[in-house]
Amino acid sequence: SPAQHNALFESDAEIFSIGQTRLAITTDEFCEEEDGFRATNIEQLGWNLVAATLSDLAATGADPAFFLHVLGLPGHDFERFASELTQGINSALKAGGCYLLGGDTSCSEHWRYVGTAIGTFRGEPLLRSTEAYQLLLYATGSFGDGNLSALNPAYQAKFELHHDFIRRVRPFLSLGMDSSDGLRNTLATLCMVNPSAKITIDADAVPVHPDVAAFCQSAGMPKQGFFLGSGGEYELIVGVCPDQREAFEKSCQSGEATCIGRFEKSEQPGLFWQKTAESPAKPDI
Q1: 1 — pLDDT class (breaks 50, 70, 90)
Q2: pTM of the predicted structure, to 2 decimals
Q3: Mapping DSSP to helix (H, G, I), strand (E, B) and coil, where does residue 4 land?
Q4: Is 58 in contact with 65 (CB distance < 8 Å)?
Q5: How many Å apart are CA 223 and CA 225, to the nearest integer?
């Protein structure tokens, strides 16, 4: 559409204008089989479904405004599942400042969910692509719990809302994307939409979720392996110009964002990993 501002894969949400009003819209379908979202705690599942949908708006710098959804409820436990799920949905919408307009309800053997969110902008949209020559890459929260949920049926991650964070730090950001497809795939996508960029990640700097660290210790598995799977944590990866670092970090709450690497235009573009900041950078497989 001539009213659409972002190119293909350039933004987590689609950005468009109606008259003089610029909006962001996103829609996502979720199910346990594909996404690894557990129904161990149904109310928490409802929270996670909304948080995962709204994450796309946060990654573009948009404020949540309106929400629609399709509830695909399991027929064998329809009423209890619906009651607990909508409690979690309502809690997340209230926390995000977003209003449910309506939607549709269906019944099947397994639960399915489709969330659609619409947001508004206070300033310029945040894209996955950037003209910046050099950026520091920061990550919110911790990583690996999305993949742990997919691996371990007894475990259920809880996702965070990031809109308050984005409102505070938006003036200092030049790039943004959420990790709905896991950390490694997020970084690979940033390389795809910025073909002249070299992204170098300090693996030891990436915060690991405490539950993942405990699981890896008991199972004898390397923690960094959980960065490579496609289970989503719905954390944000944002780019900050080096001269904005101090102002950005002052706007963050304690432990809210961690510098995990750097982005720079290079004659040798692509994704690279380091064990530590001093280790040699090795190209992604």
Answers
A1: very high
A2: 0.95
A3: strand
A4: no
A5: 5
